Amino acid sequence: MAHAEEIQLQIRDEGFPEHDSGDDDRAWLESAATATRGANRRGVRWWVLMLVDMLMLLCGEAMAPLLGRLYYNSGGNSTWMATLAQSAGSPLLLIPLLILTPRPAAGGEHRPAVSKAKMAAICVGLGLIIGCDNLMYSYAMLYLPVSTFSLVAATQLAFNAVTSRLINAQRFTALTFNSVVVLTFSAALLGVGASSASGDDDGTSGSSSSSGGSKRALGFVMTLSASAVYALILSLFEVTFDKVVRTRTLWWVLTMQVYTHAVASVVSVAALFVSGEWSKIPAEAAAFKHGRAAYVATLVGIAVGWQAAALGAVRLVARVSSLFANVAGTVALPLVPVFAVAMFGDRMTGIKVLAMLMAVWGFLSYVYQHYLDERHADEWKRRSPADCRMCAERADEKPCPAPAGSCASSGLRRLNI
């Protein structure tokens, strides 16, 4: 009896009402139904905004690699200029950033101010990592056909599953593990195909069979390395939102995006001058296949495409998780090789088709796991107050089977006694 009173006291201390009668339960159910209707309205808006984020990510990831390949095929040779273009679109985000104002914490909750020195260090660190990642992507685009590049880049989902587990405490299941394994084998299959197809006309630069094979191998390694670093970047963004900023508003998403990419742009500009490539830019623009205007338009398109992809990814990280952002980006996987075949004459070999199907299989495995998680969480959110009291009364016998935080919609919190 004393134990039951202690449990009830702890529930009152948490700020939740005590339910003692059937009338209270009925009143609670009516209020829960009202809250559920409001949550459903918010849910529709949430799904619409998430679809907009996914559309930005998909359009950016489909457009940017194709324009990057066009840059090299039309006479572009500066890897640092291609690297700069991947982060130079961040000033476009200053307009919505200046219009928006920081949103106060939900429910009037007071949060301590974020340290400016800490945020500056985080933005500089992330910016340097993004700059290195952009450089690796530039070399990968130089040495690989765009179809192969896009398929190998899908391994970022496998890498992100690992970083999400280590950094963000992401839960692993059989379906998630299946997704990681299938995508890893898909990339390995492409690597074998790229090394054996030294005589293929894939649209990449190369003067001889041996040098072309070595460049393709280097491009494959660069793509894998860039994918691993990109997965790390998304996980670091997520842990920054959770542990440092402690909010996931659009204002903070834009702020992180602008400052980190500004640092990456500064690094790329400095490297462009130090390497001496800046002196070759006028001649490169003059010799561009379709003229100076096409040269500028191609670089602007690359900047806009990568910025849209990055903004969509970071918004999905803030809205859901880094792993979900990577999964959403994988949806663009079948699009790029098809466009590459039409635009650049890339050969859609049997190995690429098989690798693409394996990658889609891995993507669908994770999507189904996400569906099961949401369904399981919804089932626990429909629990009645009596179920939650029973859960509290038996908490000393075995742990509550509900997922953490799933009782929030019923006004009760899982007790860890």
Summarize the structure.
It contains 16 helices and no strands. By secondary structure, it is mainly alpha-helical. The longest helix has 52 residues.
Topology overview:
Elements: H1 2-13, H2 22-73, H3 79-87, H4 94-99, H5 116-143, H6 146-153, H7 156-167, H8 174-196, H9 209-245, H10 250-274, H11 281-286, H12 292-319, H13 322-330, H14 335-344, H15 350-381, H16 385-393
Helix pairs in contact: 2-12, 2-13, 2-14, 3-5, 3-10, 3-12, 5-9, 5-10, 6-8, 6-14, 7-8, 7-9, 7-13, 8-9, 8-15, 9-12, 9-13, 10-12, 12-13
Offer a few descriptive terms.
single chain, 417 residues, mainly alpha, globular
**Quaternary structure state of the chains depicted:** single chain
Q: Count the beta strands.
A: 0
Amino-to-carboxy terminus distance:
16 Å
- The rough form would be described as globular
Mean pLDDT: 74
Helical content, roughly? over 70%
What's the story with the biggest beta sheet? none
**Total of helices:** 16
- Poorly predicted parts: 1-22, 27-42, 105-110, 198-202, 205-209, 395-399, 402-417
N-to-C series of helices and strands: HHHHHHHHHHHHHHHH
- Backbone structural class: mainly alpha
Radius of gyration equals 25 Å
What is the beta-strand fraction?
Answer: under 5%
InterPro entries: PUP_plant
Organism: Sorghum bicolor (Sorghum)
Protein name: Probable purine permease
Family: Belongs to the purine permeases (TC 2.A.7.14) family.
Provide a descriptive summary of the structure in words.
With 417 residues, the protein is mostly helical. The chain has a domain at 66-102 and 114-195 and 214-375. It has 16 helices and no strands. It has helices spanning 2-13, 22-73, 79-87, 94-99, 116-143, 146-153, 156-167, 174-196, 209-245, 250-274, 281-286, 292-319, 322-330, 335-344, 350-381, 385-393. Helix 6 packs antiparallel against helix 14 and helix 12 (292-319) packs across helix 13. It starts with a helix and ends in a 24-residue tail after the last helix. The model is unreliable at 1-22, 27-42, 105-110, 198-202, 205-209, 395-399 and 402-417 (pLDDT under 50).
